[in-house]
């Protein structure tokens, strides 16, 4: 199982700070950014991280705000700039964000995502795309020469997992536990699919305080329909129930549980002190 971590790109950090953070995780397999309102553009940031792990990923870039031609162009540009280190994680996000923040109709997310990938993947492979569908009409190819990056889909529901199985290289998920990975996610994906699990991790002697803090900060995420359904599948009350918090031994055991469940990748997002978490992630990789 590959081990990575999150590089926060909220916009409050300088590019120099992001570079330093990437250099600190050189011992890991991967480092990931995401699209945060008001934050750095993840695809624009990644080429600046000349140090860091072999794999640089987005987890994730929302699909609705960007035409697939635009995203394919950006992704291949980043792939060329980073020497083939990009893994492109995408997803439809949530109606709250797309309609509430951007004013974009959140129409048929599973059908929209399937058609998005039907356009995106061939463009990334250097093919000329002729497509006329429900959401997109495209007749062009790209001239950017770069290897096609792997594409992961943020897929939580059964229909989205079908799209990931058919058209992506795997899925990237949050707010889940090992039992859900083994019993729900893995059986719905192709045998060679990546199952990338992102979880908050704290090395601490006071796990209750960590869970309470996460519950206060991220409890609202548990009310978003896709996340709520995922939590319910695992019998979890909220996002805080997915946090891995405890001493090094406990954290390593919990990461091993994800490995045993069939996760191919684990992304540990530090909560509280960052360095102890990075140290444990390096141990888990070793």
UniProtKB/TrEMBL annotation:
<feature type="domain" description="Luciferase-like">
    <location>
        <begin position="20"/>
        <end position="245"/>
    </location>
</feature>
<dbReference type="GO" id="GO:0016705">
    <property type="term" value="F:oxidoreductase activity, acting on paired donors, with incorporation or reduction of molecular oxygen"/>
</dbReference>
<dbReference type="InterPro" id="IPR036661">
    <property type="entry name" value="Luciferase-like_sf"/>
</dbReference>
<protein>
    <submittedName>
        <fullName>TIGR03564 family F420-dependent LLM class oxidoreductase</fullName>
        <ecNumber>1.-.-.-</ecNumber>
    </submittedName>
</protein>
<dbReference type="Pfam" id="PF00296">
    <property type="entry name" value="Bac_luciferase"/>
</dbReference>
<dbReference type="InterPro" id="IPR011251">
    <property type="entry name" value="Luciferase-like_dom"/>
</dbReference>
<dbReference type="InterPro" id="IPR050564">
    <property type="entry name" value="F420-G6PD/mer"/>
</dbReference>
<dbReference type="InterPro" id="IPR019910">
    <property type="entry name" value="Lucif-like_OxRdtase_MSMEG_4879"/>
</dbReference>
<keyword id="KW-0560">Oxidoreductase</keyword>
């Amino acid at each position: 199982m590959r081990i990575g971590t999150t590089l926060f790109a909220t916009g409050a950090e300088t590019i120099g700070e992001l570079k330093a953070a990437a250099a600190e995780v050189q011992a890991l397999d991967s480092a990931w950014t995401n699209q945060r309102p008001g934050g750095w553009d993840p695809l624009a940031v990644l080429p600046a991280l000349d140090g860091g792990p072999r794999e640089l990923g987005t987890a994730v870039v929302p699909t609705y705000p960007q035409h697939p031609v635009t995203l394919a162009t950006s992704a291949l540009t980043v792939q060329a700039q980073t020497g083939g280190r990009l893994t492109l994680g995408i997803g439809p996000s949530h109606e709250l964000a797309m309609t509430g923040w951007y004013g974009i109709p959140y129409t048929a997310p599973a059908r929209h995502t399937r058609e998005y990938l039907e356009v995106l993947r061939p463009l990334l492979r250097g093919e000329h795309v002729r497509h006329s569908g429900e959401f997109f009409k495209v007749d062009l190819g790209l001239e950017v020469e770069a290897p096609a990056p792997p594409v992961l889909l943020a897929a939580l529901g059964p229909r989205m997992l079908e799209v990931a199985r058919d058209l992506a290289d795997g899925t990237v998920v949050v707010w889940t536990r090992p039992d859900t990975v083994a019993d729900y996610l893995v059986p719905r994906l192709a045998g060679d699919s990546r199952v990338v699990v992102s979880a908050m991790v704290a090395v601490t002697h006071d796990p209750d305080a960590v869970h309470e803090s996460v519950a206060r900060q991220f409890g609202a995420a548990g009310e978003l329909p896709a996340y709520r359904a995922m939590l319910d599948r695992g019998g979890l009350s909220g996002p805080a129930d997915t946090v891995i918090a405890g001493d090094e031994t406990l954290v390593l055991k919990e990461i091993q549980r994800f490995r045993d469940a069939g996760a191919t990748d684990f992304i540990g997002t530090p909560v509280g002190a960052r360095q102890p978490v990075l140290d444990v992630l390096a141990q888990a990789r070793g």
